[in-house]
Amino acid sequence: MLALGWYGMRRAKTREDYLVAGRNLGPGFYLGTMAATVLGGAATIGTVRLGYVHGISGFWLCASLGFGIMGISLFLAKPLLKLKIYTVTQVLERRYNPTARHASAAIMLVYALMIGATSTIAIGTVMQVLFGLPFWVSVLIGGGIVVAYSTIGGMWSLTLTDIVQFLIMTVGIVFILMPMTLSDAGGWDALVAKLPASYFSLTAIGWDTIITYFLIYFFGIFIGQDIWQRVFTARTETVAKVSGTAAGVYCVLYGLAGAVIGMAAKVVLPDLDNVNNAFATIVDTTLPDGIRGLVVAAALAALMSTASAGLLAASTTAAQDLWPLLGGNADDDGDAHKNRLFTLLLGVVVLGIALVVSDVISALTLAYNLLVGGMLIPLLGAIYWKRASTAGAIASMLLGSLTACVFMFLDGLDANTPIYYSLAVGAVSFVVISLMSRSASGSIELA
Questions:
Q1: Which pairs count as long-range contacts for 337-341, CB under 8 Å and 24+ apart, including other chains?
Q2: What is the CATH number of the domain that holds 240?
Q3: What domain range is 391 assigned to?
């Protein structure tokens, strides 16, 4: 990874090279980097746990991510490429004013930092188990490698490392772990004979959970800086549409593979004390030395790709959207040095968060609740509603984010209420205040 990062640095000479790989990625690179960005620890280790507990319906987490990638590729990629921008929040500035951009950038920065931190925590956890190191040492080594290659080469380094990580994930999880665990369980017929019928129902996980996954992850993909930044790297509209859609399909299939692994683990290891350890335990139980190392590398690859994506998204948002508030120039001389400095500094912040936050799923849920609850409504309004106003957008961001925080505190991070109520409050405040405003600037042309 470090060697690829160094090679990427040689190609990242300008700001456009550093942030969006010169807007020059072809079909293979685009598909690999998009899929690797989306499929992190939650999609890999989390889906195996869901498969262990719920059966095949555990694939819905990955499916909602995959459908989100398909949606943004088919409906938004073409117009987004025409805008020649770097961040999600620049769309809000074009529709509203700089205040809306800066307010949304603060939400986006928190989201991106938490995405980077959650994957870094997971990297530290895997390395701690693998090498018997103290957790803080594992975080600094594993996370430090991600910070290093992200800092020196930006999007080019991320793309090159993502391709290798994508290949390792595919081979390790889909072509090695799934067939070997399925074989150990006695094959598909043995799963049918030994598992409850609910394990083979696509809706056993519950409609409330499926709907929540779509609200959080499907729409989170549509407005996440880490995803938009990948869209901006496509060489052509066709690459973005076709390869992006293929990446979405891959995510759905990856989720099915993870769920099947979890189901096989339920047969092989029916009485796990902690279902969160389903992935690690089945890997340790099923695979021989050497092969086990490749699969652990696959898990680390998934985590590293997501951590680096979150870090670069955070640094891009800080440099392009928030730095001007302090008197800086987001467009100074087109050089990548300033962006490298932001990536390094925020990389240190991500490592710091990873050392003090312990619950990965809670941190990830917090990030997506804030992002979707605070930004989905104003962004959709910016694109599709001519009466939308700056006052309505800012009110929606503030009230939606605040509502998400209140209900996460009251009902817990596992509850569905934060996303439901934050979207409801954000929508009502956006519409009412926009209609009360005297003027609106017209929707952005995304067609």
A1: 338/15, 339/15, 339/18, 339/19, 339/154, 339/315, 340/18, 340/151, 340/152, 340/154
A2: 1.20.1730.10
A3: 359-447
